[in-house]
Amino acid sequence: MKLIFDKSVPGRSLSILPPCDVEETALPKEYARTKAPILPELSETDVSRHYTELCHHVYGVNCGFYPLGSCTMKYNPRIDEEMAQLPGFANVHPLAPAYASKGCREVLDRAKTMLCAISGMDDMTFQPAAGAHGEFTGVLLIKKYHDSRRDTKRTKIIVPDSAHGTNPATAAMCGFQVVNIASAPNGCVDLNALKLALGDDTAGLMLTNPNTVGIFDENILEITKLVHNAGGLCYYDGANLNAVMGVVRPGDMGFDCIHMNLHKTFATPHGGGGPGAGAVGCKEFLKEFLPHSALMDGVEGSQVRSFAGNFLVVVRALTYLLTLGREGVREAAVNAVLNANYLQKRIKGSFKPAYDRICMHEFVLDLSEFKKETGVSALDIAKSLIDRGMHPPTMYFPLIVHEALMLEPTETESKETLDMAAEVFHDLYKQAHTEPEPMHSAPHNAYIGRPDEVRAARTPVLQKKLS
Ligand SMILES: *Cc1c(COP(=O)(O)O)cnc(C)c1O
Asked: Is ligand 1 within 6 A of the CB of residue 276?
């Protein structure tokens, strides 16, 4: 597809501006440009077609099934977008005085109250702009806590090997040494490994529960107790709260602080690198270390982002919570778990679950034997799904499962969609045994085939030099 600059024709334009109603004055010379800016010149039709064509190259939740595990690609109700677009919210100036931004403050307060109730925490900040940013903030709280007690020997953070990659990265960025512990064969925390890793140098533990293989760790109370007894704190990676919201609370599991990705569970679309929010909640005793905005809260303190963070993401979360209500939040979680179990059970006839048991909101398939049998890899299956109109699941994660495909259907999918997906998986399973060849070069009907992912990540070309 051509860039919009390549479609430009000198002199073509679409702007019909109203007559200027203020007196024209020249800019002081030092501020004026010497050359005209390079802008594409096109008609309105061309611009409209250009962006519509780009839309067709994108696959989103509104196009079809998108079971990308750990990402909660669920349908976000339109009312959340409508509320975020209300001019009183969308156009508020961050320096607006308190009396002129009362409504916005109420949104923050009410969202905080509800999300604290859901997570079992006592206070919260909305400053962090993403999950990883929330983790960073939360682990800094842990650091501050130990520092405030002059407990300087606590230099290590324990992270299970099933953790999201952001967990060890966060601990390292906060200046801690990362202690990796192997998971037990059932994918959960190995209590013995944990006991061995704990000591008076333990600052804390970072954990996701349900974990990244979609299993709820039944030893959770014992785990958090062990960490506390060693003098460490427990951090809950609540990036995805879809299985537990309204059902169990991380605070009651013994966690001291948490981040929640409002852009996964609480109705902000995500995936394009757009604005998100990693709301960080904590128990009473960590409250004093939360970041504060001197301008917003009137309290001096450290900030991790400007003002209140991505405010409109909080507006969407609050709208979502108010729309669903107390019972609805719980029902969404219960249905997310039901859908995942239904799909796991239906796919199980062909592909093998990595942990064959009741799952939470997601499950992982282990294709290593299937690959030995057929030569078809998890990547080949993922790419073949694109030709069948589905977005691939998460691939090769978590690292503790080989040839992993991780599926999270979410509560917003119907039984018909889940049945369709199961049929597609069965079809591909059969094809791998009869006619595997084309699967190695799939997708065949997509706009892009198999890009060189390493080169794209290492040496991305994100700019075009204009002359
Ligand atoms: C998505 C995710 C994160 C990171 O969130 P970002 O907003 O992408 O930074 C961390 N942990 C888990 C378990 C996740 O699924």
From this structure: yes
